[in-house]
Amino acid sequence: MSQRVFSGVQPTGNLHLGNYLGAVKRFVEMQDRYDCVYCVVDMHAITVWQDPVELKRSIREVAAAFLAAGVDGSKHIVFNQSQVPQHAELAWVLNCVARLGWLNRMTQFKEKAGKDRENKSVGLYAYPNLMAADILAYRATHVPVGEDQKQHLELARDIAQKFNNDFAVSIAANGLAPEFFPQPEPLISGPATRVMSLRDGSKKMSKSDPSDASRINLTDDADQIAAKIRKAKTDPLPLPETVEEMKTRPEAENLVGIYAALSDTDASAVVAQFAGQQFSAFKQALVDLTVSKLGPINAEMKRLVADPGHIDRVLGEGAGRAEAIAAVTMNHVKDIVGFVRR
């Protein structure tokens, strides 16, 4: 089996710098090493209510961000999840493999649901099983994940192993390899895999933060980027002299990490370059770097979003290629489980 990467991004709110550094930038970098399947996970988005008109716009905008950043939709697969029915179909089978106790341990549901869990959707509770289906439908070998998604990938691995064990006899009877579903490996590398809020270094940069100043959106122009970085929270001390010192200074660590990720270097190199300088000088350097990296992406996104027909064609063509892979997997699953199919 070829080494295949699967990853997805939710179309909820504006994509921001954290999404770019943690996901989209890495999508581009992985294209030369893996067979890549990149998905706009719109079915995950509706685990909380979405305005239908806004959801459709957001799906196209995320796809535009993929393409504008450099994802090659002709060589790799770019599509939106709801166009490939095997995601939902496999998710049901995996719902019947996964255990309630496993889902009860998922910390992200507890964080998102808060104290009002009884009124949250079943989809929000069970969506880690859909995430497992997203990955396993393509029998992906690698998944780029942030720290907050590692637990869900571990669940996908557990589900894959349990399926292989539960149906070992049937898998063999159908002439398939014992490890029908591979154990997908996490890809976590590079600086700034977890980008924090510009207003609070202890909180992750988020689309849902009520303060737009907390994040740099991929749709922000140069003036907006500059204003947000200049107003980013720091402490009164100069930049750290060592990487160790940053561990007690979250805002400094966040800005240094962003600079490192955008410049394709590491925190130690950034500290060596700016150690002891005032934040005002460092912030200007960060403004210049951020604008130079995001400016072309911003311009190309605007061009693509203005042509929704083109984006829809890319998504539709990608969905056809994705379904050709997922249908093979799902047919095997039906045979393994014991369904009668056409």
Automatic annotation (TrEMBL):
InterPro entries: aa-tRNA-synth_I_CS (IPR001412), aa-tRNA-synth_Ic (IPR002305), Rossmann-like_a/b/a_fold (IPR014729), Trp-tRNA-ligase (IPR002306), Trp-tRNA-ligase_bac-type (IPR024109), Trp-tRNA_synthetase (IPR050203)
Subcellular localization, as worded in the UniProt entry: Cytoplasm
A Pfam family per the record: tRNA-synt_1b
Gene3D superfamilies, per the entry: HUPs (3.40.50.620), Tyrosyl-Transfer RNA Synthetase (1.10.240.10)
Chain location of the short sequence motif 'HIGH' region per the record: 11-19
GO cellular component terms, A-Z: cytosol
The keyword Nucleotide-binding is assigned to this record: yes
Keyword set, alphabetical order: Aminoacyl-tRNA synthetase, ATP-binding, Cytoplasm, Ligase, Nucleotide-binding, Protein biosynthesis
Domain of life per record: Bacteria
An example Gene Ontology biological process: tryptophanyl-tRNA aminoacylation
GO MF terms held by the record: ATP binding; tryptophan-tRNA ligase activity
Residues involved in L-tryptophan binding: D134
Catalytic EC class: ligase
EC number: 6.1.1.2
Motif position, 'KMSKS' region: 204-208
Main localization (coarse): cytoplasm
Residues annotated for ATP binding in this entry: Q10, P11, T12, G18, N19, G146, E147, D148, V195, K204, M205, S206, K207, S208
Family: Belongs to the class-I aminoacyl-tRNA synthetase family.
Annotated PANTHER family: TRYPTOPHAN--TRNA LIGASE, MITOCHONDRIAL
Assembly and oligomerization: Homodimer.
Protein name (Swiss-Prot/TrEMBL): Tryptophan--tRNA ligase
Organism (species): Methylopila jiangsuensis
